[in-house]
Write a structure and sequence with these properties.
Layout: H1 2-9, H2 17-35, H3 42-49, H4 53-60, H5 70-80, H6 85-103, H7 105-131, H8 141-161, H9 166-185
Amino acid sequence: MLVRQCYIGRVPKEVDHQARRRELADAACRVIGRQGLAGATLAQVAEESGWSIGSMRYYFRRRTAGGTSLAGLRAAALELLPLDTSRREESRVLLAFLAQAAVVPELAAAADDAAQRLQEPLTARIAHAIQAGELPAHLDPGHEAIRLQLLIYGLMVELATTTTTRRHLAKWAQAILDEHIAALAAAPAPAPERHAPAGRR
């Protein structure tokens, strides 16, 4: 019994990565609420959350190991949408940052980096779904990731700014996302190019 208890005691504790991301996002929102977007710094967010800057950078640069199913792609996309109060706050912070980046050249590189960090995992998930046979083989993962990213941004703007009943918006947004993924899964292969006979060019 003692041996088993010692063994159990050494089992690594399971980490809720989503909860940790939410904790850090909440801290960032509080700092930006107090300091404004221009006045908020990574050090302030680290102090607010109780994390070190190094651990924050390490944690958010991690990539999901392995692939994921098409259902996982949908779940990841839904997680990015502001379907509850905390995510609405996060989305408003992001939209405020993007609006600033459009007029402040110094922020443009950071905005591009943020977009790339979103695009890369979406590309990986779509590529895995293609390899698993859940999406057509002719799809370009990078191109489809950009299309999905733009859809997410559009839905984010609508969900974060409209005054329509939130429950209705959530159903609408999920239906739009499901339609997009269903269209991906059913996308026909492009027609082969036809070459004119030699004498008719």
